[in-house]
């Protein structure tokens, strides 16, 4: 089990990499800014029962935080994960879609479940997700507020990424880039949540 300082070192690094303020982190995890600030300044011990909330705030898995840096023994098997930009059937996404290419990924570094990569083709999610980045998507249709999800809307099979926020009677799909207006999804719209973004990879 990692110590409190080790966990906070990882969260500090994720905070810097994602360029997030304490206020934004507090909003994403649904906690008071003062409480979150005390975790990062080591004035209060980090609550392990909130690890999932903080992992979601940084778009990583809880295991990534708890296991980061841990020595492991593993086979260096490389898996070609498909890169998919559109779908034809949400019940068999990987089988029905036609992968444009594949992104080689070490098998030990992959979470369980059905996975694919989405290549970011615009700047709507910058600075968190830069254009041309490969975003690892875990296929699932259930998500929480403030998670970044891959969705399709109405009759367009093309996937796109947005942060989801459920409101009373409608859903907001939010870009990180303020130049992109929120998308309001009502009951008249047909929105399919294909999966949750869990990791970003890109070449320098």
TrEMBL record:
Keywords, sorted A to Z: DNA-binding, Transcription, Transcription regulation
TM ranges: none
The protein, known as: Xre family DNA-binding protein
HTH cro/C1-type domain sequence ranges: 11-65
Domain of life: Bacteria
Signal peptide: none
Keyword Nucleotide-binding: no
Organism, as annotated: Tetragenococcus halophilus (strain DSM 20338 / JCM 20259 / NCIMB 9735 / NBRC 12172) (Pediococcus halophilus)
A GO molecular-function annotation: DNA binding
């Amino acid at each position: 089990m990692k110590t409190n300082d080790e966990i906070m070192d990882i969260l500090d690094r994720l905070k810097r990499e994602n360029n997030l303020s304490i206020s934004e982190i507090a909003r994403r995890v649904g906690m008071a800014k003062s409480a979150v600030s005390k975790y990062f300044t080591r004035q209060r011990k980090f609550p392990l029962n909130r690890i999932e909330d903080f992992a979601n705030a940084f778009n990583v898995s809880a295991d990534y935080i708890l296991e980061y840096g841990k020595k492991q023994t593993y086979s260096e098997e490389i898996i070609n994960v498909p890169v998919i930009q559109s779908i034809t059937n949400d019940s068999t996404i990987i089988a029905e879609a036609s992968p444009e290419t594949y992104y080689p990924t070490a098998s030990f570094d992959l979470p369980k479940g059905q996975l694919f990569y989405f290549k970011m083709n615009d700047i709507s999610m910058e600075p968190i997700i830069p254009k041309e980045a490969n975003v690892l998507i875990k296929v699932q249709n259930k998500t929480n507020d403030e998670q970044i999800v891959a969705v399709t809307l109405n009759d367009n099979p093309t996937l796109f990424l947005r942060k989801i926020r459920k409101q009373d009677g409608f859903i907001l799909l939010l870009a990180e880039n303020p130049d992109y207006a929120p998308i309001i999804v009502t009951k008249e719209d047909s929105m399919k949540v294909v999966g949750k973004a869990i990791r970003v990879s890109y070449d320098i």
